[in-house]
Protein backbone atom coordinates (compact mmCIF):
# COMPACT_ATOMS: atom_id res chain seq x y z
CA UNK A 1 0.00 0.00 0.00
CA UNK A 2 1.33 3.48 -0.85
CA UNK A 3 1.90 5.51 2.33
CA UNK A 4 -0.39 8.50 2.75
CA UNK A 5 2.02 10.18 5.16
CA UNK A 6 5.82 10.23 5.21
CA UNK A 7 7.97 11.65 8.01
CA UNK A 8 11.48 12.89 7.19
CA UNK A 9 13.88 12.95 10.14
CA UNK A 10 17.13 14.68 9.23
CA UNK A 11 18.79 17.95 8.27
CA UNK A 12 16.96 20.67 6.38
CA UNK A 13 19.18 20.26 3.30
CA UNK A 14 18.57 16.51 3.22
CA UNK A 15 14.82 16.95 3.68
CA UNK A 16 14.72 19.38 0.76
CA UNK A 17 16.30 16.82 -1.53
CA UNK A 18 13.92 14.05 -0.49
CA UNK A 19 10.86 16.29 -0.81
CA UNK A 20 11.94 17.35 -4.29
CA UNK A 21 12.21 13.75 -5.43
CA UNK A 22 8.94 12.72 -3.84
CA UNK A 23 7.16 15.55 -5.63
CA UNK A 24 8.93 14.75 -8.90
CA UNK A 25 7.64 11.18 -8.85
CA UNK A 26 4.09 12.36 -8.20
CA UNK A 27 3.67 11.83 -4.46
CA UNK A 28 0.76 14.10 -3.43
CA UNK A 29 0.03 13.04 0.17
CA UNK A 30 1.39 14.33 3.48
CA UNK A 31 5.12 14.94 3.97
CA UNK A 32 6.16 15.86 7.51
CA UNK A 33 9.73 17.14 7.96
CA UNK A 34 11.10 16.83 11.50
CA UNK A 35 13.73 19.58 11.68
CA UNK A 36 13.91 21.35 15.06
CA UNK A 37 13.93 25.13 14.74
CA UNK A 38 13.26 25.19 11.00
CA UNK A 39 9.63 26.27 11.13
CA UNK A 40 9.07 25.14 7.53
CA UNK A 41 10.90 23.28 4.78
CA UNK A 42 10.00 23.99 1.16
CA UNK A 43 6.79 25.70 2.33
CA UNK A 44 5.84 22.65 4.41
CA UNK A 45 5.37 22.85 8.16
CA UNK A 46 8.34 21.44 10.07
CA UNK A 47 7.93 19.68 13.42
CA UNK A 48 10.15 19.97 16.46
CA UNK A 49 10.08 16.26 17.27
CA UNK A 50 8.51 12.96 16.26
CA UNK A 51 6.03 13.08 19.14
CA UNK A 52 4.72 16.40 17.77
CA UNK A 53 3.63 14.84 14.46
CA UNK A 54 -0.15 15.11 13.82
CA UNK A 55 -0.49 11.31 13.52
CA UNK A 56 1.67 8.19 13.33
CA UNK A 57 3.30 8.34 9.87
CA UNK A 58 2.74 5.46 7.46
CA UNK A 59 6.43 5.60 6.56
CA UNK A 60 9.53 7.42 7.70
CA UNK A 61 13.02 8.18 6.38
CA UNK A 62 15.83 8.68 8.88
CA UNK A 63 19.04 10.39 7.78
CA UNK A 64 21.02 10.11 11.03
CA UNK A 65 23.86 7.79 12.06
CA UNK A 66 24.52 5.97 15.32
CA UNK A 67 22.72 6.94 18.52
CA UNK A 68 20.69 9.66 16.79
CA UNK A 69 19.32 7.11 14.34
CA UNK A 70 18.49 4.62 17.11
CA UNK A 71 16.68 7.32 19.09
CA UNK A 72 14.66 8.37 16.02
CA UNK A 73 13.66 4.79 15.19
CA UNK A 74 12.66 4.12 18.81
CA UNK A 75 10.54 7.29 18.82
CA UNK A 76 8.87 6.29 15.55
CA UNK A 77 8.09 2.84 16.93
CA UNK A 78 6.63 4.37 20.10
CA UNK A 79 4.53 6.73 17.96
CA UNK A 80 3.12 3.76 16.00
CA UNK A 81 4.73 4.47 12.62
CA UNK A 82 4.04 1.98 9.86
CA UNK A 83 7.73 1.48 9.04
CA UNK A 84 11.04 3.25 8.64
CA UNK A 85 14.22 3.26 6.61
CA UNK A 86 17.51 4.30 8.17
CA UNK A 87 19.88 5.72 5.57
CA UNK A 88 22.76 6.25 7.98
CA UNK A 89 25.24 3.91 9.59
CA UNK A 90 24.17 2.06 12.73
CA UNK A 91 24.62 -1.40 14.20
CA UNK A 92 21.85 -3.67 12.80
CA UNK A 93 21.09 -5.33 16.14
CA UNK A 94 20.70 -1.93 17.83
CA UNK A 95 18.40 -0.76 15.06
CA UNK A 96 16.26 -3.90 15.34
CA UNK A 97 16.03 -3.53 19.11
CA UNK A 98 14.93 0.08 18.81
CA UNK A 99 12.31 -0.77 16.18
CA UNK A 100 10.64 -3.56 18.13
CA UNK A 101 7.76 -4.84 15.99
CA UNK A 102 7.93 -1.93 13.55
CA UNK A 103 9.31 -2.90 10.11
CA UNK A 104 12.64 -1.21 9.50
CA UNK A 105 15.12 -1.23 6.63
CA UNK A 106 18.77 -0.30 7.06
CA UNK A 107 21.54 0.46 7.55
CA UNK A 108 23.63 0.65 4.37
CA UNK A 109 20.76 1.91 2.21
CA UNK A 110 22.00 5.47 1.85
CA UNK A 111 21.51 6.81 -1.64
CA UNK A 112 19.46 3.86 -2.90
CA UNK A 113 15.68 3.67 -2.58
CA UNK A 114 13.12 3.51 0.18
CA UNK A 115 11.43 0.14 0.48
CA UNK A 116 8.17 1.49 1.83
CA UNK A 117 7.59 4.32 -0.63
CA UNK A 118 8.95 2.30 -3.57
CA UNK A 119 10.16 5.28 -5.59
CA UNK A 120 13.56 6.91 -6.20
CA UNK A 121 14.58 9.21 -3.36
CA UNK A 122 18.17 10.16 -4.23
CA UNK A 123 17.72 10.38 -7.98
CA UNK A 124 21.04 11.95 -8.87
CA UNK A 125 23.16 9.56 -6.80
CA UNK A 126 22.43 6.44 -8.77
CA UNK A 127 20.88 7.52 -12.04
CA UNK A 128 17.29 6.51 -11.28
CA UNK A 129 14.42 8.56 -12.64
CA UNK A 130 10.80 8.76 -11.51
CA UNK A 131 8.67 6.47 -13.68
CA UNK A 132 4.91 5.93 -13.75
CA UNK A 133 5.27 2.15 -13.99
CA UNK A 134 8.34 -0.05 -13.86
CA UNK A 135 10.07 -3.01 -12.27
CA UNK A 136 11.42 -3.33 -8.76
CA UNK A 137 14.75 -4.90 -7.80
CA UNK A 138 15.46 -6.23 -4.32
CA UNK A 139 19.22 -6.60 -3.84
CA UNK A 140 21.53 -7.83 -1.09
CA UNK A 141 24.55 -5.97 -2.47
CA UNK A 142 24.73 -2.17 -2.52
CA UNK A 143 27.43 -2.32 -5.22
CA UNK A 144 25.20 -4.45 -7.45
CA UNK A 145 22.27 -2.09 -6.86
CA UNK A 146 24.39 0.88 -7.86
CA UNK A 147 25.66 -0.92 -10.96
CA UNK A 148 22.15 -1.89 -12.07
CA UNK A 149 20.79 1.61 -11.54
CA UNK A 150 23.65 3.17 -13.51
CA UNK A 151 23.47 0.67 -16.39
CA UNK A 152 19.74 0.16 -16.78
CA UNK A 153 19.92 -0.71 -20.52
CA UNK A 154 16.67 1.20 -20.99
CA UNK A 155 14.77 -0.76 -18.33
CA UNK A 156 12.19 1.36 -16.46
CA UNK A 157 13.21 0.76 -12.82
CA UNK A 158 10.65 2.06 -10.34
CA UNK A 159 12.92 1.27 -7.42
CA UNK A 160 15.91 -0.63 -6.15
CA UNK A 161 15.87 -1.74 -2.52
CA UNK A 162 19.05 -2.84 -0.79
CA UNK A 163 18.47 -5.21 2.11
CA UNK A 164 21.91 -6.39 3.17
CA UNK A 165 21.89 -9.67 5.05
CA UNK A 166 21.58 -9.03 8.77
CA UNK A 167 21.19 -5.29 8.25
CA UNK A 168 17.43 -5.07 8.70
CA UNK A 169 14.76 -6.91 10.57
CA UNK A 170 12.38 -6.77 7.61
CA UNK A 171 12.96 -10.04 5.76
CA UNK A 172 13.53 -10.43 2.05
CA UNK A 173 10.15 -12.07 1.49
CA UNK A 174 8.29 -9.37 3.40
CA UNK A 175 10.01 -6.61 1.45
CA UNK A 176 9.22 -8.41 -1.80
CA UNK A 177 5.55 -8.65 -0.91
CA UNK A 178 5.42 -4.94 -0.07
CA UNK A 179 6.90 -4.09 -3.45
CA UNK A 180 4.53 -6.37 -5.35
CA UNK A 181 1.49 -4.74 -3.77
CA UNK A 182 2.34 -1.40 -5.39
CA UNK A 183 0.30 -0.92 -8.57
CA UNK A 184 3.26 0.82 -10.23
CA UNK A 185 5.42 -2.31 -10.02
CA UNK A 186 5.14 -4.61 -13.04
CA UNK A 187 7.68 -7.30 -12.14
CA UNK A 188 10.19 -8.08 -9.40
CA UNK A 189 13.84 -9.07 -9.59
CA UNK A 190 15.55 -10.47 -6.48
CA UNK A 191 19.25 -10.96 -5.82
CA UNK A 192 19.34 -13.67 -3.17
CA UNK A 193 22.26 -15.86 -2.19
CA UNK A 194 20.14 -16.85 0.82
CA UNK A 195 16.39 -17.30 0.30
CA UNK A 196 15.46 -17.18 3.98
CA UNK A 197 12.56 -19.07 5.52
CA UNK A 198 11.11 -21.36 2.81
CA UNK A 199 7.51 -20.87 3.93
CA UNK A 200 7.92 -17.08 3.84
CA UNK A 201 9.53 -17.36 0.40
CA UNK A 202 6.56 -19.37 -0.88
CA UNK A 203 4.18 -16.82 0.65
CA UNK A 204 5.93 -14.21 -1.48
CA UNK A 205 5.48 -16.50 -4.50
CA UNK A 206 1.75 -16.85 -3.81
CA UNK A 207 1.38 -13.08 -3.57
CA UNK A 208 3.17 -12.71 -6.90
CA UNK A 209 0.86 -15.25 -8.53
CA UNK A 210 -2.28 -13.68 -7.06
CA UNK A 211 -1.24 -10.23 -8.32
CA UNK A 212 -0.09 -11.58 -11.68
CA UNK A 213 3.42 -10.17 -11.31
CA UNK A 214 6.36 -12.40 -12.34
CA UNK A 215 9.47 -12.78 -10.18
CA UNK A 216 13.00 -13.66 -11.30
CA UNK A 217 15.84 -14.51 -8.93
CA UNK A 218 19.53 -13.74 -9.50
CA UNK A 219 21.61 -16.36 -7.72
CA UNK A 220 25.05 -17.84 -8.26
CA UNK A 221 26.27 -21.26 -7.17
CA UNK A 222 24.92 -24.76 -7.72
CA UNK A 223 22.80 -25.34 -4.60
CA UNK A 224 20.20 -27.90 -5.70
CA UNK A 225 17.83 -27.02 -2.88
CA UNK A 226 17.78 -23.32 -3.72
CA UNK A 227 17.22 -24.04 -7.41
CA UNK A 228 14.33 -26.34 -6.56
CA UNK A 229 12.78 -23.86 -4.10
CA UNK A 230 12.87 -21.09 -6.71
CA UNK A 231 11.14 -23.43 -9.15
CA UNK A 232 8.61 -24.49 -6.49
CA UNK A 233 7.72 -20.82 -6.10
CA UNK A 234 6.91 -20.52 -9.80
CA UNK A 235 9.89 -18.23 -10.28
CA UNK A 236 12.84 -18.41 -12.67
CA UNK A 237 16.52 -18.30 -11.81
CA UNK A 238 19.16 -16.20 -13.58
CA UNK A 239 22.92 -16.30 -13.16
CA UNK A 240 24.09 -12.92 -14.45
CA UNK A 241 23.06 -9.33 -13.65
CA UNK A 242 22.88 -8.61 -17.38
CA UNK A 243 20.35 -11.39 -17.92
CA UNK A 244 18.34 -10.10 -14.94
CA UNK A 245 17.94 -6.71 -16.62
CA UNK A 246 17.02 -8.26 -19.98
CA UNK A 247 14.46 -10.61 -18.40
CA UNK A 248 12.84 -7.74 -16.53
CA UNK A 249 12.51 -5.83 -19.82
CA UNK A 250 10.60 -8.71 -21.39
CA UNK A 251 8.42 -9.11 -18.31
CA UNK A 252 7.72 -5.37 -18.11
CA UNK A 253 6.60 -5.10 -21.73
CA UNK A 254 4.81 -8.42 -22.33
CA UNK A 255 5.01 -10.66 -19.26
CA UNK A 256 6.04 -14.32 -19.26
CA UNK A 257 6.30 -16.23 -22.53
CA UNK A 258 3.27 -18.54 -22.83
CA UNK A 259 5.16 -21.10 -24.95
CA UNK A 260 8.67 -22.08 -25.97
CA UNK A 261 8.18 -20.92 -29.54
CA UNK A 262 10.29 -18.07 -30.93
CA UNK A 263 10.94 -16.56 -34.33
CA UNK A 264 14.10 -14.71 -35.32
CA UNK A 265 15.15 -12.53 -38.24
CA UNK A 266 18.87 -11.87 -38.65
CA UNK A 267 19.19 -8.45 -40.28
CA UNK A 268 22.97 -8.57 -40.60
CA UNK A 269 24.47 -11.40 -42.58
CA UNK A 270 25.64 -14.68 -41.11
CA UNK A 271 24.05 -14.49 -37.68
CA UNK A 272 20.96 -16.69 -38.08
CA UNK A 273 22.84 -19.94 -37.41
CA UNK A 274 24.63 -18.38 -34.46
CA UNK A 275 21.28 -17.35 -32.97
CA UNK A 276 19.92 -20.86 -33.42
CA UNK A 277 22.98 -22.57 -31.91
CA UNK A 278 23.10 -20.29 -28.88
CA UNK A 279 19.35 -20.55 -28.30
CA UNK A 280 19.53 -24.35 -28.37
CA UNK A 281 22.05 -24.28 -25.51
CA UNK A 282 19.40 -22.51 -23.42
CA UNK A 283 16.67 -24.98 -24.39
CA UNK A 284 14.85 -22.45 -26.59
CA UNK A 285 12.90 -23.54 -29.66
CA UNK A 286 11.93 -21.82 -32.91
CA UNK A 287 8.47 -22.34 -34.37
CA UNK A 288 8.69 -23.84 -37.90
CA UNK A 289 7.32 -21.68 -40.69
CA UNK A 290 4.06 -22.87 -42.24
CA UNK A 291 3.86 -23.53 -45.97
CA UNK A 292 1.92 -20.29 -46.39
CA UNK A 293 4.66 -18.36 -44.59
CA UNK A 294 7.36 -20.00 -46.68
CA UNK A 295 5.57 -19.10 -49.89
CA UNK A 296 5.10 -15.42 -49.00
CA UNK A 297 8.61 -15.03 -47.60
CA UNK A 298 10.16 -16.64 -50.68
CA UNK A 299 8.55 -13.92 -52.79
CA UNK A 300 10.07 -11.14 -50.66
CA UNK A 301 13.58 -12.59 -50.21
CA UNK A 302 16.46 -13.23 -52.57
CA UNK A 303 15.93 -16.10 -55.09
CA UNK A 304 18.34 -18.45 -53.31
CA UNK A 305 17.37 -17.49 -49.77
CA UNK A 306 16.82 -20.34 -47.30
CA UNK A 307 13.37 -19.84 -45.81
CA UNK A 308 13.62 -21.29 -42.33
CA UNK A 309 13.36 -20.04 -38.75
CA UNK A 310 15.67 -18.30 -37.72
CA UNK A 311 15.59 -16.40 -41.01
CA UNK A 312 18.71 -14.98 -42.64
CA UNK A 313 17.57 -11.58 -43.88
CA UNK A 314 20.76 -9.56 -44.38
CA UNK A 315 20.11 -8.70 -48.01
CA UNK A 316 16.49 -7.74 -47.47
CA UNK A 317 17.47 -5.46 -44.57
CA UNK A 318 18.76 -2.92 -47.11
CA UNK A 319 15.40 -2.71 -48.87
CA UNK A 320 12.80 0.06 -48.26
CA UNK A 321 10.84 0.08 -45.00
CA UNK A 322 7.53 -1.24 -46.47
CA UNK A 323 9.32 -4.25 -47.95
CA UNK A 324 11.15 -5.02 -44.71
CA UNK A 325 7.94 -4.55 -42.73
CA UNK A 326 6.25 -7.19 -44.92
CA UNK A 327 9.02 -9.66 -44.09
CA UNK A 328 8.73 -9.00 -40.36
CA UNK A 329 4.94 -9.22 -40.53
CA UNK A 330 5.02 -12.61 -42.20
CA UNK A 331 7.58 -14.00 -39.74
CA UNK A 332 5.37 -12.83 -36.86
CA UNK A 333 2.21 -14.36 -38.34
CA UNK A 334 3.05 -17.99 -37.49
CA UNK A 335 3.20 -19.90 -34.21
CA UNK A 336 5.88 -17.84 -32.48
CA UNK A 337 4.95 -16.03 -29.27
CA UNK A 338 7.86 -13.57 -29.64
CA UNK A 339 9.87 -12.49 -32.67
CA UNK A 340 13.50 -11.39 -32.40
CA UNK A 341 14.96 -8.94 -34.91
CA UNK A 342 18.72 -9.42 -34.52
CA UNK A 343 21.28 -6.78 -35.47
CA UNK A 344 24.99 -7.56 -35.28
CA UNK A 345 26.19 -4.22 -33.94
CA UNK A 346 29.56 -4.58 -32.19
CA UNK A 347 29.47 -0.84 -31.51
CA UNK A 348 26.85 1.84 -31.91
CA UNK A 349 28.71 3.52 -34.76
CA UNK A 350 28.73 0.27 -36.76
CA UNK A 351 24.94 0.25 -36.73
CA UNK A 352 24.44 3.50 -38.65
CA UNK A 353 21.47 5.75 -38.05
CA UNK A 354 19.86 4.96 -41.41
CA UNK A 355 20.01 1.18 -40.92
CA UNK A 356 18.72 1.55 -37.36
CA UNK A 357 15.87 3.84 -38.50
CA UNK A 358 14.83 1.54 -41.31
CA UNK A 359 14.85 -1.66 -39.23
CA UNK A 360 13.13 -0.19 -36.17
CA UNK A 361 10.51 1.64 -38.25
CA UNK A 362 9.71 -1.60 -40.09
CA UNK A 363 9.60 -3.49 -36.78
CA UNK A 364 7.19 -0.97 -35.28
CA UNK A 365 4.94 -1.18 -38.34
CA UNK A 366 4.92 -4.99 -38.25
CA UNK A 367 4.13 -5.07 -34.55
CA UNK A 368 1.24 -2.64 -35.00
CA UNK A 369 -0.10 -4.71 -37.89
CA UNK A 370 0.12 -8.16 -36.28
CA UNK A 371 -0.32 -7.21 -32.62
CA UNK A 372 2.28 -9.71 -31.42
CA UNK A 373 5.35 -8.78 -29.34
CA UNK A 374 8.64 -8.08 -31.05
CA UNK A 375 12.15 -7.53 -29.68
CA UNK A 376 15.14 -5.77 -31.21
CA UNK A 377 18.30 -7.66 -30.21
CA UNK A 378 21.84 -6.34 -30.48
CA UNK A 379 24.36 -9.18 -30.56
CA UNK A 380 26.62 -7.16 -28.24
CA UNK A 381 25.35 -4.78 -25.56
CA UNK A 382 27.50 -1.93 -26.90
CA UNK A 383 25.35 -1.85 -30.03
CA UNK A 384 22.21 -0.83 -28.14
CA UNK A 385 22.87 2.34 -26.12
CA UNK A 386 20.35 3.45 -23.53
CA UNK A 387 18.87 6.24 -25.64
CA UNK A 388 17.94 3.77 -28.37
CA UNK A 389 16.64 1.24 -25.85
CA UNK A 390 14.36 3.82 -24.22
CA UNK A 391 13.03 4.88 -27.63
CA UNK A 392 12.15 1.26 -28.45
CA UNK A 393 10.23 0.79 -25.20
CA UNK A 394 8.25 3.94 -26.02
CA UNK A 395 7.20 2.12 -29.23
CA UNK A 396 6.29 -1.00 -27.19
CA UNK A 397 9.23 -2.86 -28.71
CA UNK A 398 11.54 -4.84 -26.41
CA UNK A 399 15.20 -3.76 -26.53
CA UNK A 400 17.56 -6.64 -25.68
CA UNK A 401 21.24 -5.72 -25.32
CA UNK A 402 23.62 -8.62 -25.89
CA UNK A 403 22.56 -11.91 -27.46
CA UNK A 404 23.94 -14.15 -24.71
CA UNK A 405 22.16 -12.27 -21.91
CA UNK A 406 18.99 -11.99 -24.02
CA UNK A 407 18.75 -15.73 -24.59
CA UNK A 408 19.37 -16.52 -20.91
CA UNK A 409 16.62 -14.05 -20.08
CA UNK A 410 14.20 -15.51 -22.62
CA UNK A 411 14.74 -19.02 -21.24
CA UNK A 412 13.74 -17.68 -17.81
CA UNK A 413 10.63 -16.05 -19.27
CA UNK A 414 9.66 -19.37 -20.87
CA UNK A 415 10.01 -21.05 -17.47
CA UNK A 416 7.73 -18.42 -15.93
CA UNK A 417 5.04 -19.24 -18.48
CA UNK A 418 5.38 -23.03 -18.13
CA UNK A 419 2.98 -25.56 -16.60
CA UNK A 420 4.81 -25.68 -13.22
CA UNK A 421 4.71 -21.94 -12.64
CA UNK A 422 2.17 -22.13 -9.80
CA UNK A 423 3.59 -22.06 -6.24
CA UNK A 424 2.96 -25.14 -4.12
CA UNK A 425 3.56 -25.99 -0.43
CA UNK A 426 6.46 -28.08 0.86
CA UNK A 427 6.68 -31.24 2.94
CA UNK A 428 9.14 -30.28 5.67
CA UNK A 429 11.31 -32.56 7.83
CA UNK A 430 9.98 -33.17 11.33
CA UNK A 431 11.20 -30.62 13.84
CA UNK A 432 13.79 -31.89 16.30
CA UNK A 433 14.35 -35.21 14.50
CA UNK A 434 11.42 -37.11 16.04
CA UNK A 435 11.53 -40.91 16.23
CA UNK A 436 10.37 -42.47 12.95
CA UNK A 437 7.05 -44.31 13.30
CA UNK A 438 8.52 -47.41 11.69
CA UNK A 439 12.09 -46.85 12.80
CA UNK A 440 12.98 -45.95 9.18
CA UNK A 441 12.97 -49.70 8.48
CA UNK A 442 14.02 -50.33 4.86
CA UNK A 443 11.42 -53.09 4.73
CA UNK A 444 8.68 -50.43 4.88
CA UNK A 445 10.23 -48.68 1.89
CA UNK A 446 10.55 -52.02 0.08
CA UNK A 447 6.86 -52.72 0.63
CA UNK A 448 5.92 -49.27 -0.65
CA UNK A 449 8.06 -49.73 -3.74
CA UNK A 450 6.55 -53.12 -4.41
CA UNK A 451 3.04 -51.67 -4.12
CA UNK A 452 3.89 -49.43 -7.04
CA UNK A 453 5.17 -52.34 -9.12
CA UNK A 454 8.84 -51.54 -8.54
CA UNK A 455 11.07 -54.61 -8.17
CA UNK A 456 13.86 -54.09 -5.59
CA UNK A 457 16.92 -56.16 -6.44
CA UNK A 458 19.50 -57.38 -3.95
CA UNK A 459 21.93 -54.69 -2.83
CA UNK A 460 24.82 -56.45 -4.55
CA UNK A 461 22.91 -56.83 -7.83
CA UNK A 462 22.86 -53.37 -9.42
CA UNK A 463 20.61 -52.86 -12.47
CA UNK A 464 22.27 -53.39 -15.82
CA UNK A 465 22.67 -50.52 -18.25
CA UNK A 466 22.58 -46.80 -17.52
CA UNK A 467 21.51 -46.21 -13.95
CA UNK A 468 19.43 -43.33 -12.69
CA UNK A 469 20.61 -42.41 -9.20
CA UNK A 470 18.20 -40.86 -6.70
CA UNK A 471 19.43 -39.00 -3.63
CA UNK A 472 16.91 -37.53 -1.20
CA UNK A 473 18.01 -35.37 1.74
CA UNK A 474 16.19 -33.46 4.47
CA UNK A 475 17.22 -29.81 4.58
CA UNK A 476 15.52 -27.37 6.99
CA UNK A 477 16.19 -24.54 4.54
CA UNK A 478 14.28 -26.17 1.66
CA UNK A 479 12.42 -29.27 2.88
CA UNK A 480 13.14 -32.58 1.15
CA UNK A 481 15.50 -32.16 -1.79
CA UNK A 482 15.19 -34.96 -4.35
CA UNK A 483 18.10 -35.04 -6.84
CA UNK A 484 18.20 -37.30 -9.92
CA UNK A 485 21.46 -37.96 -11.73
CA UNK A 486 22.51 -39.82 -14.87
CA UNK A 487 26.25 -39.42 -15.40
CA UNK A 488 26.98 -35.68 -15.31
CA UNK A 489 23.36 -34.69 -15.93
CA UNK A 490 21.29 -33.91 -12.86
CA UNK A 491 18.06 -32.19 -11.82
CA UNK A 492 16.37 -31.54 -8.49
CA UNK A 493 12.89 -31.09 -7.05
CA UNK A 494 11.18 -30.78 -3.69
CA UNK A 495 8.60 -32.97 -1.97
CA UNK A 496 5.77 -33.31 -2.53
CA UNK A 497 6.15 -33.54 -6.29
CA UNK A 498 3.36 -31.70 -8.08
CA UNK A 499 1.23 -33.39 -10.71
CA UNK A 500 3.35 -33.87 -13.80
CA UNK A 501 6.51 -32.67 -12.04
CA UNK A 502 8.19 -36.08 -11.90
CA UNK A 503 7.72 -36.46 -15.65
CA UNK A 504 9.01 -32.95 -16.29
CA UNK A 505 12.13 -33.45 -14.15
CA UNK A 506 13.05 -36.81 -15.68
CA UNK A 507 12.36 -35.55 -19.21
CA UNK A 508 15.17 -33.03 -18.77
CA UNK A 509 17.62 -35.94 -18.36
CA UNK A 510 18.91 -38.19 -21.16
CA UNK A 511 15.93 -40.59 -20.92
CA UNK A 512 13.36 -41.74 -23.46
CA UNK A 513 9.65 -41.12 -22.88
CA UNK A 514 9.20 -44.86 -22.24
CA UNK A 515 11.95 -44.86 -19.61
CA UNK A 516 10.41 -41.82 -17.94
CA UNK A 517 7.00 -43.49 -17.81
CA UNK A 518 8.49 -46.61 -16.22
CA UNK A 519 10.47 -44.75 -13.56
CA UNK A 520 7.83 -42.24 -12.42
CA UNK A 521 6.01 -44.78 -10.17
CA UNK A 522 9.29 -45.47 -8.38
CA UNK A 523 9.71 -41.80 -7.57
CA UNK A 524 6.16 -41.54 -6.30
CA UNK A 525 6.65 -44.63 -4.16
CA UNK A 526 9.70 -43.06 -2.51
CA UNK A 527 7.62 -39.95 -1.86
CA UNK A 528 4.82 -42.07 -0.32
CA UNK A 529 7.30 -43.75 2.00
CA UNK A 530 8.90 -40.50 3.21
CA UNK A 531 5.50 -38.90 3.84
CA UNK A 532 4.31 -42.01 5.71
CA UNK A 533 7.37 -41.72 7.97
CA UNK A 534 6.16 -38.32 9.10
CA UNK A 535 9.18 -36.38 7.89
CA UNK A 536 11.66 -38.32 10.05
CA UNK A 537 13.76 -39.69 7.18
CA UNK A 538 17.06 -37.80 7.02
CA UNK A 539 18.47 -39.31 3.82
CA UNK A 540 17.62 -41.91 1.21
CA UNK A 541 19.54 -43.27 -1.79
CA UNK A 542 18.35 -45.55 -4.54
CA UNK A 543 19.55 -46.61 -7.98
CA UNK A 544 17.09 -47.79 -10.61
CA UNK A 545 16.43 -48.20 -14.30
CA UNK A 546 13.39 -49.15 -16.37
CA UNK A 547 12.70 -52.86 -16.46
CA UNK A 548 10.94 -54.97 -19.03
CA UNK A 549 7.25 -54.36 -19.82
CA UNK A 550 7.26 -50.99 -18.07
CA UNK A 551 8.42 -52.31 -14.71
CA UNK A 552 11.17 -50.39 -12.89
CA UNK A 553 14.09 -52.24 -11.32
CA UNK A 554 15.77 -50.73 -8.25
CA UNK A 555 18.78 -51.53 -6.11
CA UNK A 556 21.12 -50.16 -3.48
CA UNK A 557 18.41 -48.84 -1.15
CA UNK A 558 19.96 -46.92 1.77
CA UNK A 559 17.95 -45.03 4.39
CA UNK A 560 19.12 -42.94 7.32
CA UNK A 561 16.67 -41.78 9.96
CA UNK A 562 16.85 -38.39 11.66
CA UNK A 563 19.43 -38.56 14.43
CA UNK A 564 20.77 -41.84 13.04
Descriptors for this entry?
564 residues, alpha/beta, Rossmann fold, 4 domains, 6-stranded mixed beta sheet, 5-stranded parallel beta sheet, 18 helices, flat
Describe this structure in words.
By secondary structure, the chain is α/β, with parallel strands linked by helices. The protein is 36% helix and 20% strand. It has 18 helices and 23 strands. The strands form 5 sheets. Strands 18-23-22-19-20-21 form a 6-stranded mixed sheet, with helices on both faces. Strand 8 (134-139), helix 5 (142-150) and strand 9 (157-162) form a beta-alpha-beta unit. Helix 17 crosses helix 18. The longest helix has 20 residues, at 513-532. The protein is flat, with a radius of gyration of 28 Å.
Characterize this entry briefly:
The chain is an alpha/beta fold and 564 residues long. The protein folds into 4 domains: 109 residues, NAD(P)-binding Rossmann-like Domain (Rossmann fold, 3-Layer(aba) Sandwich); 123 residues, 3-Layer(aba) Sandwich (Rossmann fold), CATH 3.40.50; 138 residues, 3-Layer(aba) Sandwich (Rossmann fold); 120 residues, D-amino Acid Aminotransferase, Chain A, domain 1 (2-Layer Sandwich), CATH 3.30.470.20. The chain contains 18 helices and 23 strands.
How much helicity do the residues have?
25-40%
| Adjacency order of strands in the biggest sheet | 18-23-22-19-20-21
Named at the architecture level, the CATH assignment of the largest domain is 3-Layer(aba) Sandwich
Q: So how many helices?
A: 18
Strand content: 15-25%
Structural class: alpha/beta
Overall pLDDT confidence: 84
Which fold name fills CATH's third level, the topology of the largest domain? Rossmann fold
Terminal CA distance: 48 Å
Number of strands: 23
The first-level CATH class of the largest domain is given as Alpha Beta
For the largest beta-sheet, the strand count, sense and barrel status come to: 6 strands, mixed
CATH 4th-level superfamily of the largest domain: Succinyl-CoA synthetase domains
How many domain modules?
Answer: 4
Which value, in Å, is the CA radius of gyration?
28 Å
Amino acid sequence: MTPRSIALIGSEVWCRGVIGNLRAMGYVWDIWPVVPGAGSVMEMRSFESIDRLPAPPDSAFVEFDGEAAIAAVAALAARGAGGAMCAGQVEPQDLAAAAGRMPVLGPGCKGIVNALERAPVWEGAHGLRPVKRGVAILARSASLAQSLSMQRRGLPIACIVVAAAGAAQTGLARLGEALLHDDRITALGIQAEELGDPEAFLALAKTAERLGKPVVVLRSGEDAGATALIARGGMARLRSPEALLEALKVLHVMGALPANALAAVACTGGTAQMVKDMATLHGLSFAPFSEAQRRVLAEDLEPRAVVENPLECGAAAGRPVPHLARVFTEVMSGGAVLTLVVLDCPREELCDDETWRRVTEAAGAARARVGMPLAIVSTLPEGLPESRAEALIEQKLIPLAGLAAALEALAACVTLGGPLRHPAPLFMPAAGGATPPDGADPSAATATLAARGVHLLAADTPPEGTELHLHLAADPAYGYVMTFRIGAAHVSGLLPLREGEAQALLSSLPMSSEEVAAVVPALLSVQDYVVAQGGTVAELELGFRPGGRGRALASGLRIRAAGG
